[in-house]
Amino acid sequence: MRTWREGWNDRIAATEDADAVDRDIDALINAVSAVPPGMVRRPQVAPREIPFDVVSGTAETPVGFLSLALTPRGLVSCSFDSEDTVLPRLARAVSPRIGPHDAWLEPVRQELNAYFEGRLTAFTVPLDLRLTSDFGRVVLRSLLDVPYGSTTFHTDLAARIGRASATRAVANTLATNPLCLFLPCHRVVPPDYPGECGPYTGGTAAKQYLLRLERERRSPKTPAF
Fold this sequence. Notes:
The protein is α+β, with helices and mostly antiparallel strands.
């Protein structure tokens, strides 16, 4: 059976605008090379080798496979959903011109590996937040203020963005976070934590794993809340 990705690859036009493709490639190179020197190795790719608006692939991690997608703006998806779920969403919201290119996802995979090995506490890959709403972007950006190894409550997150009465909307936004781990919604827990860690798109076991990993690796000066 053909995959969703293969079907879209067949629909990519055979005669592309060469200048437009080159501009896309240059933008993608700039997005990837924005990662600080020494953190990743910039892949060497021949000009016009990747005529896509979205580069997609997967990463195998201790909490399962993640579906990844990168645009010229940055990482647009890091999801526990399968590619058959993620790619149609990207086609509607970003572009149907989607294709694989492992080399361009290498910086993302390297940072994920470093995170799970306990060597990285803050991701540096540029992010593209177009898969969420304006309100969602405010909520998800606020997650970056929750330190590695600490946790917060939905109510505190709502208050932090000046929407104390929007706790349910905040919870709904976290449930549809398109950039899991990179925007750390796993750090938002219910009031009775550590008795219960709360729901998570990757499953309760994955959330417990991430919280434990960060708790064990955090600096002694990092507050738990």
